[in-house]
Amino acid sequence: MSQSVGATASAQAFEVLGAVMANKQQNQEAKMATMLVQSAMQSVEQVQSSAPVGNLGQNINISV
Question: Who contacts 58 (Cβ-Cβ below 8 Å, separation ≥6)?
Answer without folding.
Answer: 52
